[in-house]
Design brief:
Blueprint: H1 3-11, E1 21-23, E2 46-48, E3 68-70, H2 81-86, E4 92-94, E5 117-119, H3 131-138, E6 144-145, H4 157-160, H5 169-231
Parallel strand pairs: 1-2, 2-3, 3-4, 4-5, 5-6
Length: 237
């Protein structure tokens, strides 16, 4: 499916201005360029174009509210100056798996004052000596490069990852609470079962003791009867 048709389907009878997130992963771009995306998407905050065969981002419209852009697994080798011109409020940029070879190709990103996280996994540029130090020096506004800050501390989920899917934090917390409650109920049930087992064992022990006493009593009665018969007068025989 080409990009224009995919955008039409993603709209689902909405107007472009209603859309905040747009995922176009794995569709086809014509001649390696963005098509069908216009400046009418004025409220777009998240855009994902993973593996769409992009060679250039030159056709990218101006998206003043866009904060997070996924461009991984394409064939982009330069021309990043367009991002600085069209996406002034970009905070997260993922260029993993593209054809970026030199630190100099990243220089246009200096103009993205709000850029906080940049991912370049599987790009040739990551093989350069002092790669991380060079990028942080070139882009001082960055907090995270490839998911880690300058001190090699890993980014938290909210800082380092691009949104667009997953479960809300509130839902996660509710799930954990339910699990805790279930665990408490199971523990309570296990305690009750243990108490019942102990009572059964005690009952069995009592029954065994009782039956033992009855046998002793029966034996004593039999002995007494025999003794009486021995002492009885001979005319009874």
């Amino acid at each position: 499916m080409d990009m224009k048709k995919r955008i039409h389907l993603e709209l689902r009878n909405r107007t472009p201005s209603d859309v905040r997130e747009l995922v176009l992963d794995n569709c086809r771009s014509v001649e390696g360029k963005i098509e069908g995306l216009t400046a009418e998407f004025v409220n777009l905050e998240f855009l994902s174009l993973i593996n769409v065969g992009l060679i250039s981002v030159s056709n990218l419209p101006k998206l003043g509210k866009l904060k997070k852009l996924e461009l991984s697994d394409n064939r982009i080798s330069g021309g990043l100056d367009v991002l600085a011109e069209k996406l002034p409020n970009l905070t997260h940029l993922n260029l993993s798996g593209n054809k970026l070879k030199d630190i100099s190709t990243l220089e246009p990103l200096k103009k993205l004052d709000n850029l906080k996280s940049l991912d370049l996994f599987n790009c040739e540029v990551t093989n350069l000596n002092d790669y991380r130090e060079s990028v942080f020096k070139l882009l001082p506004q960055l907090t995270y490069l490839d998911g880690y800050d300058m001190e090699d501390r890993e980014a938290s989920d909210s800082d380092g990852e691009v949104d667009g899917d997953g479960v809300d934090d509130d839902e996660d917390e509710e799930g954990e609470e339910e699990e805790d409650e279930d665990g408490e109920e199971e523990d309570f049930d296990e305690e009750e079962d243990d108490e019942e087992d102990e009572e059964e064992v005690e009952g069995e022990e009592d029954d065994e003791e009782g039956s033992g006493e009855d046998e002793v009593k029966n034996e004593r009665s039999l002995v007494e009867l025999l003794l009486k018969q021995v002492d009885a007068p001979s005319h009874f025989f």
